[in-house]
Amino acid sequence: MSETAQTIAGDYNPRNYKSDLKPVWCPGCGDFGVLNSVTKALAGLKLAPEQVAMVSGIGCSSRIPPYTRVYGFHGAHGRALPVATGLALARPDLVVLAAGGDGDILSIGGNHFIHTCRRNVNMTCLLMDNAVYGMTKGQPSPTTECGWEGSKLAPRGHEAAAFRPLEMALAAGATFIARSFSGEPNALAELIATGIRHPGFAFIQILSPCPTYRPEQMQYKKIVHPGFELTSDRRQAYLQLMEDDGFATGLLFRGSMPTCVAPSVGEAADIDTIQQQFVVR
What are phi and psi of 190, to 5 degrees? Predict the structure, then answer.
């Protein structure tokens, strides 16, 4: 048993899932709340650190793996979901979490997001959404609302429509779709734990304010509200999203479909046998 496992054994306290590294997020960043919620969820599920792996891409939110004691992989920009998919297929014994921001997952990683939803691999995606590129000085992101004028990098105001991640996840075939708020860590922890227990791909959009480039988001505490009624009917879920103001929280949709698993490859072949399969005759 590892030293970490010995520390955790019999004492499933959230603090035991945090590493000794101090987060470098800005004071007030919503990502602190996400980190607290993740550790609460793992403690509540009584998972040893070596039973969990967290994969991320690039960005402020993607710094989260080294702040925990679980296995971590800090990957390339936009590639958290395909890396997490491969890991979940190769190691079905692990609980796999993929974490990233709205830019990382929905922009450069947008194509991966769509196909991860439809494949339904057993893993959980935490989209830490602050509707801005925080690490690269405040450009509008895929989820930034049209008309936002808070960035000098968009001097005429943001002119594109905002990406609606829950609608895209629903259309792409995700079987678990939810939204939460980093300022409500207990509710978020419960939702993460529910997503981990879900057999298939669980997608959670987390409203995670950026006090540096979106200071108006610090009012989220007064704006977010419970609003989703859980359904297994995609049509009913979509009708709810048509009325959504973007701040409703809760588990929206939970469906079922076959979970994607890796095919059995049988016994390992030697290199000469593998090479013969590629000989052109």
Answer: -65, -40
For residue 241, give Cα distances in angstroms to 164, 167, 178, 238, 249: 9, 7, 11, 5, 11
The token duo for 85 is 């998919």
pLDDT of amino acid 136: 85
Beta bridge partners of 72: 54
pLDDT band at 1, cuts 50/70/90?
very low
DSSP state of 217: G
Residues in the chain: 281
Which pTM was predicted?
A: 0.90
Domains and CATH numbers, the chain: 3-276 (3.40.50.970)
Q: Report how far residue 252's alpha carbon sits from residue 234's, in angstroms, rounded to the nearest whole number.
A: 10
The secondary structure of 244-258 as a DSSP string is: --S-EEEEEEE---P
Closest alpha carbon to 130 in 241, 240, 238, 25: 25
Q: CB of 176 within 8 A of CB of 198? A: yes
Q: CA 142 to CA 164: how far, in whole Å?
A: 9
Supply the DSSP symbol for 241.
H
Q: What is the DSSP string of 76-144?
A: STT-HHHHHHHHHHH-TTSEEEEEEEHHIIIIITHHHHHHHHHHTBSEEEEEEE-SSBTTTT-B--TTP
Q: Are strands 176-181 and 225-226 parallel, antiparallel or unpaired?
A: unpaired
CA distance 30 to 103: 16
Please write the tens of the pLDDT for every residue from 109-148.
Answer: 989 999 999 999 999 999 999 989 888 888 888 998 888 8
Question: Averaged over 241-267, what is the pLDDT?
Answer: 88
